From TrEMBL:
Catalyzed chemical reaction(s): an N-acylsphing-4-enine + H2O = sphing-4-enine + a fatty acid
Needed cofactors: Zn(2+)
Residues that bind Zn(2+): H99, H209, E484, Y527
Neutral/alkaline non-lysosomal ceramidase C-terminal domain sequence ranges: 558-723
Protein name: Neutral ceramidase
Pfam families hit by this protein: Ceramidase_alk, Ceramidse_alk_C
Gene3D superfamilies linked to this entry: Neutral/alkaline non-lysosomal ceramidase, C-terminal domain (2.60.40.2300)
InterPro entries: Ceramidase_alk, NCDase_C_sf, NEUT/ALK_ceramidase_C, NEUT/ALK_ceramidase_N
Enzyme class: hydrolase
Organism annotation: Escallonia rubra
Domain Neutral/alkaline non-lysosomal ceramidase N-terminal: from-to ranges: 7-556
Assigned EC number: 3.5.1.23
Family the entry assigns: Belongs to the neutral ceramidase family.
CC terms in the record's Gene Ontology section: endoplasmic reticulum; extracellular region; Golgi apparatus; membrane
């Protein structure tokens, strides 16, 4: 494969922002954390690589979502089969989540992941499935000859180990081989059009949790990885943000702004907001994705964890304060401003990616290949050293799971490291499902708090059948894992697979082979800690579902895939398929209908207009805001559109300058507790690169009078204001 590009490459991207009001967020399992607006939009970003139009290929999709979902994967593959036949299937499609904790939930099929979202949320699910499909379609339609370059480098200030005491349980001689208790390397792929020589995209893998935004946040956000992607894509197309005309601030400008009043609510079309998007998705845009890796114990809250009452560091072994886990909270680099922390950790990943992107020289060449198998993880026989045979267990969660982490403390009365359960919680557990003696023994030293693997009412609480997958792109191997490997667990897996490939590959693989873990891919099964970390039963170990030998099972089964790939053999047998539980999902969240504005008011009318500061004009760093009468955004997701726009006056024409996919613009929605009328507040934090001139804020929305009536759409703009 030559430098002029004999691979076929394609990239795609599509808006997957789900319902921005009243839907529980996926990640922290906090009942009170329901969506109430958008900080910036969520996207599915895909790349496809193929040897030729009929040759081997695979598709990799990165989601601004908490994790992949088995049901999402099943339905995406069904749609792809209708479009393309057997071209894309479970073997060669990988769907991976960034692990943001600020996206709408309700899209996973197992009970334990949908309790706080009140069951299945069709709108969340459909937004994700459609976006994955459309991003793959876009990548498929844009396939062209091209080259792929790989680069790696260290990023040391975007994560810390949040369970350092558990890491210390790993053997000292093993720990001595690594400079830190987290992995600091980023691996980046650069995709270059073979004809034009232009870059069309970049995908990178780096481990840090999507928890810069806390469990109190209610704005939809891609968290630090989504922010990094937004910054990277904007950097690449940097001219798109700079308005072509700079209008100097003057007395004349201020007077003109004072004459332009709010428009009032006006009807518009369903697609009107798409015309006001700053970044229109025509399939030609550069795609920059920041993918997740072995993130299990890696926190972006790099200042460390402190007690909220005393300001002192938390207890080292349990991450609690005087025995209370709720008081121990991690601090991001922008503490106490979580938006700033998100920006800083996002910028650090973005800047490292730019560095790797601009210096990438190693071109990938060689075979495209893949292997995939489904495994029943509740009963895998694992052969350890010395011919000792052990087994994995049905899924279960320990008390350390209920304690939560320093990124998001859980329930009062639990601590990380707990291996005992008090009588009250035992009675609660036994009321739900008393674990069998086999399960109790199998999971030791974990105490079984929730016996999810043996709970099947009203349907399965946890997955039993999991996919594992290997993708090969020349000397790059991507391991698609359906969960969160801790740092050391990920190291062991990568090293084992590399060794297997080298020893079985007849010279095809060597020490220069890159092995990358793609975390939270194809389905979700929580954590994978090492056997030694499992002994301490901190959060990650207590959430290692299938018992103390989970990691050993992964290494054993991945080694089979690696050996088959190295020797050019197929996987036999393919294994049991996971269930499609879509027909039995509980849906307890009601659909909205019947929103109306106050008497004499239209949706889109301004409730509270812009209030310029004393000098009459806004400066960089100021916040301009306006509130509009508005129904819940759940009536229409305005996919590839926007609920909020900052317009700039250029001559006699208003031009969109920022929208709800910008880091500087905030769309907040809520209901007035006394009147029960809904309103949307648009806040613009003036960035340093904002041009001086006349601006206004615009809102788009949708409503319906009854459940069965068609949607109507509206828009409204605030009074104008000046920026100096």
């Amino acid at each position: 494969i030559s430098a002029n590009g004999e691979y076929l490459i394609g990239v795609g991207s599509y808006d997957m922002t789900g319902p921005a009001a009243g839907v529980n967020m996926m990640g922290y399992a906090n009942l009170e954390q329901n969506t109430a607006g958008i900080h910036f939009r969520l996207r599915a970003r895909a790349f496809i690589v193929a040897e030729s139009s009929n040759g081997a290929r695979f598709a990799f999709v990165n989601l601004d979502a908490g994790m992949a979902s088995q049901l999402v994967t099943i339905k995406v593959l069904e749609r792809l089969k209708k479009r393309y036949g057997k071209v894309y299937n479970e073997d060669n499609v990988a769907i991976s989540g960034t692990h943001t904790h600020a996206g709408p939930g309700g899209y996973l099929q197992y009970v334990v992941y949908s309790v706080t979202s009140l069951g299945f949320v069709q709108q969340s699910f459909d937004a994700i499935v459609t976006a994955i499909e459309r991003s793959i379609v876009q990548a498929h339609d844009s396939l062209r000859p091209g080259s792929i370059f790989i680069n790696t480098g260290d990023l040391v200030n975007a994560g810390i180990n949040r369970s350092p005491s558990a890491y210390l349980f790993n053997p000292p001689e093993e720990r001595a081989r690594y400079p830190r208790d987290i992995d600091t390397f980023m691996t980046l792929l650069k995709f270059v059009d073979g004809k034009s020589g232009e870059s069309i995209g970049a995908f990178s893998w780096f481990a840090t949790h999507g928890t810069s935004m806390s469990k109190d946040n209610k704005l939809i956000s891609g968290d630090n990885k989504g922010a990094a992607a937004r910054f990277f894509e904007d950097w690449f197309t940097s001219t798109s943000k700079k308005t072509s005309t700079t209008i100097n601030h003057s007395t004349k400008t201020s007077k003109k702004a004072q004459t332009i009043k709010a428009t009032g609510g006006q009807p518009c079309s369903k697609t009107a907001s798409q015309g006001f998007k700053v970044r229109k998705n025509d399939g030609s845009r550069f795609v920059g994705a920041f993918c997740q890796s072995n993130v299990g114990d890696v926190s972006p809250n790099v200042l460390g964890a402190f007690c909220t009452d005393s300001g002192l560091p938390c207890d080292f072994n349990h991450s609690s304060c005087h025995g209370n886990d709720l008081l121990c909270v991690g601090r991001g680099p922008g503490y106490p401003n979580e938006i700033l922390s998100t920006k800083i950790i996002g910028e650090r990943q973005f800047q490292k990616a730019v560095n790797l992107f601009t210096t990438a020289k190693e071109e990938l060449s060689g075979k495209i290949d893949y292997r995939h198998v489904y495994l029943n993880f509740t009963d895998i026989e694992v052969e350890l050293e010395g011919n000792k045979v052990v087994k994995t267990c049905p899924a279960a969660l320990g008390p350390g799971f209920a304690a939560g982490t320093t990124d998001g403390p859980g329930a009062f009365g639990f601590q990380q490291g707990d291996t005992k359960i008090n009588d009250f919680w035992k009675r609660v557990r036994d009321f739900l499902k008393k674990p069998t003696q086999y399960q109790v023994d199998c999971q030791k030293p974990k105490a079984v708090l929730l016996d999810t693997g043996e709970m099947f009412e009203p349907y399965a609480w946890a997955p039993a059948i999991l996919p594992i997958q290997m993708l090969r792109l020349g000397k790059l191997i991507i391991l698609s894992v359906p969960g969160e490997f801790t740092t050391m667990a990920g190291r062991r897996l990568r090293e084992a697979i590399k060794e297997t490939l080298i020893s079985n590959g007849d010279g095809e693989f060597d020490e220069e082979t890159h092995v990358v873990i793609a975390g939270l891919t194809n389905t979700y099964s929580q954590y994978i800690a090492t056997f030694e970390e499992y002994k301490q039963q901190r959060y990650e170990a207590a959430s290692t579902l299938y018992g103390p030998h989970t990691l050993s099972a992964y290494i054993q089964e991945f080694n089979k895939l690696a050996k088959a790939m190295a020797q050019g053999e197929n996987i036999v047998p393919e294994g049991p398929s996971p269930p499609d539980l879509s027909s039995v999902q509980l849906k307890l969240l009601l659909d909205p209908f019947g929103d109306s504005p106050p008497p004499g008011v239209s949706f889109g009318d301004v409730k509270q207009d812009i209030h310029p500061p004393k000098g009459g004009s806004f400066n960089k760093g100021d916040r301009a805001s306006a509130t509009f009468w508005s129904p819940t955004p759940r009536y229409d997701l305005l996919t590839e559109g926007t609920y909020a726009v900052v317009e700039m006056l250029q001559g006699e024409r208003w031009v969109p300058a920022y929208d709800d996919d910008d880091f500087s613009l905030f769309f907040n929605w809520g209901v007035d507790n006394s009147t029960f009328y809904g309103s949307a507040t648009i806040e613009w934090e003036l960035p340093e690169d904002a041009s001086p001139g006349v601006y206004r804020l615009r809102h788009f929305g949708s409503t319906k009078k009854t459940k069965d009536s068609p949607n109507t759409y509206f828009t409204g703009a605030s009074s104008a204001f000046t920026v100096s």
